[in-house]
Amino acid sequence: MTPPASLNDEDIANFPPVPEDLEYSSRNSIYQPPIKVQSPKPRLFALIIGINLYENVNPLRGAVADARAVRNYLEAQLDVPEERIHMLLNQSASRSSILAAFARLRDDPYIDKGDPILIYYAGHGSEAIFEPENGHTKTLVPQDYSNDPVKTIYPIPYSTIGTLLTQIAAAKGNNITVIFDCCHSSPGKQCQNTTGTLVRSVDSTLTSLMDRDMDGDVLMGTQSYQKKGGTSDNLHAYILISACSPSEKARENQGRGAFSTALLKLLRTVPPNELRYSELLSRMDQIPGQNPSCEGAHQNRALFDGKVFFEERICHTINSTAENGRFFLGSGAIHGITKGSEFSLYESADNLSEPPLGHIKVEILKPSYAIMQPSDLIDLRPTTTSVIAVQVKAGEREDVRFYCPGDEEYLVCHEAFISVTGNPSNIGWNIAMVETPDDAHIKIEMQNSRVIFFIKDPAITQYGITRLFYDTALVVEEIAPVIKSAEHYFFALNHSVHNPAIVNDIQLEIYKLQRPFMLPAGPNLYQDNIFDLVVEEGDVPYGMKLTNNSSFDLYPNLFYFDNSDLSIVSYYQPQSVGGDYNSVVPLGKNGGTLTIGYGSSRALPLSYYLRDGQNFDIGFLKIFLSIRPADLSTLPQPTPFERSRPFDKRPILNLWGTILIPAIQRRYPRESLNHAACTHCGHTVDPGLDLGYLQIENGDLRCELDIHRKMASREIQNLEKGYQDILAELERRKAELAGLTDISRQQPGRRKNSRKVIQATRGPEDGSSPALADPQHSPRARLSLRMSLSERVKRLLRSKA
User: Region (Disordered) spans which residues (predicted)?
Assistant: First the structure.
């Protein structure tokens, strides 16, 4: 079948009627419920490292939890066997253990060439200096790191890691994925900022000068060993995914890493075989202050080279008879299908390991069905009446994901969802329902016959906001506007363009303004990429100053995103100039400045308030940067909880960079940086009484105990095996001696020679040491060793009990 041309309105009108409700129509064989087929167990091997408790540097809280979450993802969703996952947590993640674990992957005989390998690290990173060249290098910080001159344990430089990865690739192939959730550079003196957020980095002033030859046994003879202070950049050997750019900080909040949380949220919703490395970062939710990176020569591959699937694959049965060159898929947006999704066709669910018959992709998406267009020739037998469609490529990223229970009392909520996604005027909107609350941006719940909207996006919940401030009645007319506004809100909030050449050269300052002349007063309130203020009585004004140190003239747009009511407010948009007149550049290059809310700017001052009954709020200031005027006049939107005019969504074009700034508004001040303050009332608590932290630490210690028990169990097994080997060797020697004795009895003339052989076996009496007479190999010595091993086994068994 040749791919047809694009559909027009007349073509669509000729399609047979399609059910619009949530249930599949029993009158049409096209719409059969999808079936789940068990995927084969993947041959994926993983090394997972997580370190919270360091011997000599500040502890973390979320690295071990992230490592466990990665393991849970591999076991629960990808069905990776436990024995193929090697975990190093806290004390078990020493420098020598980490290097040995890399070497173990390289030498493991059970890993075939081309098998997927995942290496994940969560913990501290830093920069160090090689002597004598003083070249800087990125490093991972092992649990036993120490700069004590008496017992120096160095960080692990990327040159060593890169060389080991190159060795693994040479032995096992280049299907290697490396994920580092740590900083690349030093954070300065503090590992914790003013909001209590931990940073995964060690101050470079703590790291000693490193000897470039310290890992010579690993690097000797390799090309990377010739480099001075650099990394082994053989990115043909592996894909490297990092939590942030070199100048940024990898943060953790609420006991989890911000990057790992966002990454796993994506991986739980999109099967790895449908996701390419090049799409990974653009599909993740935006992380304030962090711009992850992906490096490698094979970024166009599917994750793990397309060899790993979810534990169960969804198979859709479709009618093989095409209408106007199109196929109907009996699943739509409400089932998680998105625009641009691609599917492979198979004769049956039993033939998924064979080459596909062809491919189709979503052309028109409806709530409960999709119209599919062939993307290549499809080889169907004349007798084939139905085929199986399996998704092989994820479609466009959902702008917002909702979770709504399937209970009957939530039927009105689903009707509201369909009214938005099925409305022809909303073509271009991308909303999806997901199966679990943790994968959603918003969770819908019913309480006292009211619809409550809980926020599940970690970028927001990490600051203490867990729900929208308002709720609605259980009617479609009130729920649908919230769904529509949420789609536009998260689309604009997560639309990001990271351009370090511009963004890193923008200096931001935010000040309280003093009336009546609106002049900056007090300190810069923008610290650690966060704007934190105490809301005062009255309309207190604030102003922002931007300094452009880049070599580009810029046109900034500034908006405020209110997480309490989903409104978007414009704080600053450049002046528009009509006709052929040149527009005025608001933020000139090479040191140009722009003030918003004071000075020569016509923009009004920034102002904030807390609603009655609200002691804490979190919003986002977002700056959109472009090198030419960009019309973002359609970006603002009113809150959906008030009657207002409708709005239209337009694409955001011509952007060169975005900056997202959390704006924290408190009714009460944080009293001390040494105490954790309640995000809602400002009450301070001694961190020593932090029950959550103690629970996490208790869990870490329990996990450590389990690790040591497993290590002791393996050592006991090895000792028992050695014990049995010695017994077998003793029996063999006894048999040899018995045989020699029999020969000497049968041949008296050879007794003299037999005695020499026996004496050589037992060992000489005069103290000489021929090869066969080594005292360490004599039966008496072996018996002594056997008794020693037996005692060690007994002691280990007693300690294990």
Answer: 1-20, 740-785
